[in-house]
Design brief:
The protein is an alpha+beta fold. It has six helices and 16 strands. The strands form three sheets. Strands 2-1-11-10-7-8 form a six-stranded antiparallel sheet, with no helix packed on it. Strands 4-3-5-6-9 form a five-stranded mixed sheet, with no helix packed on it. Strands 12, 13, 14, 15 and 16 form a five-stranded antiparallel sheet that branches.
């Protein structure tokens, strides 16, 4: 069958030989897993589907019917009886079409020794078995032992034992008394022990003055009742009208106010519970940091992504922006950070810069570069100038 022979040599030393079938490719370059490692490109298809391609900086010579001529173009369809030699530095690569024939595999000679060994082993086993049967001693038959008669055992069910009488249920028997005129003792009542204990408890409570009637209707007075709901002040501490309007039209996000009732559990502060007050606690003059969008100028977004979408995306990362204010600025200080950046089609931030408010600006820049904005495939980049006010 037809194949393409590719032989790589370094001087007189053969580096590799490969035969390409129909549809196979011979690649050179610096990427791992290629056919030949050469510093020409990352991955260059030297031979692909019978077409020879010459990389930049290499020379090629075509040999056809014994005549050598330099290759004018950068590609050549490799025909029969045509040989191409490509020179890349000190390495020469010869490419030619050859006809390969399938070589028959040599037949493995049959090994007869295992069969002879198996036959001899089987014969030896049969011989030993025949000798054992022929010369085995004759044993006298064993005497038959009498078979004992079979005995059938019949299970006779026994009547269940009679239950023992309860001493409390047996009436007392009149006994002889020294005084024949004395009346016999009264019979003991048959009462449940649990009912008897309860009756004794009620009698003792009535004697102590805790119960005023003979029945059980006034027993709930023994249980103390109180207004549990009035003992705790449970109410809503978040008021919608107290929220400042934000950039996108809705209430501005404030991490110091949590819409979860009087027992909120989420806060962003330097310590646990820094932003919360319990009912009855002494109010403290605490400062709740706030970040505001577009407090000054500029506030412009030029491109397919609107200014409102950019503002909403920045508000989603308000916690990280406020963390920069808490860690990099003085308490109760005010300042503005101006952001200049571009948003790529895949939502990535490009060429970003932040100015103003001391050490807060570099921290805000780090947060900005980690934000993924909405993608806009096929659209140009969006140029953004935004200002963030901290107080």
């Amino acid at each position: 069958m037809d194949a393409v022979e590719v032989v790589a040599r370094l001087g007189s030393t053969t580096l590799s030989i490969r035969y390409l079938g129909v549809g196979e490719t011979y690649r050179i370059g610096t990427a791992p897993g290629l056919d030949l490692a050469l510093r020409v490109a990352t991955s260059f298809p030297l031979v692909e589907r019978g077409v020879v391609r010459i990389p930049a900086g290499a020379t090629a010579t075509v040999f056809d019917a014994g005549l050598a001529s330099p290759l004018a173009g950068r590609e050549l369809w490799l025909a029969a009886r045509v040989r191409v030699e490509v020179q890349i530095g000190l390495v020469s690569i010869t490419i030619a079409r050859v006809r390969t024939s399938a070589m028959p595999l040599p037949r493995v000679p049959l090994e007869a020794r295992p069969y002879l060994y198996a036959t001899a082993s089987l014969g030896a086993h049969l011989l030993v078995w025949a000798l054992a049967i022929t010369f085995a001693p004759q044993l006298e038959p064993a005497e038959k032992l009498p078979v004992p008669p079979r005995v059938r055992v019949t299970h006779v069910p026994q009547a269940p034992p009679e239950p023992k009488p309860d001493p409390t249920m047996i009436p007392a028997v009149a006994t002889a008394s020294a005084d024949p005129t004395a009346a016999p003792p009264p019979a003991a009542p048959s009462e449940n022990p649990q009912v008897a204990r309860r009756r004794r408890a009620v009698s003792e409570a009535r004697e102590a003055g805790m119960l005023g009637s003979d029945g059980l209707d006034d027993m709930p007075i023994l249980v103390r009742r109180t207004d549990v709901e009035g003992a705790f002040e449970v109410g809503q501490t978040y008021h919608e009208e107290d929220a400042d309007p934000g950039f996108a039209g809705g209430p501005r996000w404030n991490p110091g106010t949590i819409a979860a009732g009087a027992y909120a559990t989420v806060s962003e502060g330097r310590g646990a519970g820094e932003d919360y007050d319990l009912p009855g606690a002494v109010a403290e003059d605490r400062h709740v940091p706030v970040v505001e969008m577009c407090t000054g100028r500029p506030c412009v977004a030029d491109g397919p992504i609107s200014r409102a979408v950019i503002a909403n995306t920045l508000e989603d990362h308000a916690l990280a922006l406020l963390r920069c204010y808490r860690h990099k600025a003085e308490p109760r200080s005010r300042g503005t950070v101006t952001l200049d950046f571009e948003i790529d089609r895949n939502g990535e931030v490009l060429r970003a810069s932040a100015h103003g408010f001391g050490e807060v600006a570099p921290c805000v820049l780090t947060v900005l570069e980690s934000i993924d904005f909405p993608i806009a495939p096929g659209e140009p980049q969006t140029t953004v100038q935004f200002s963030l006010g901290f107080r």
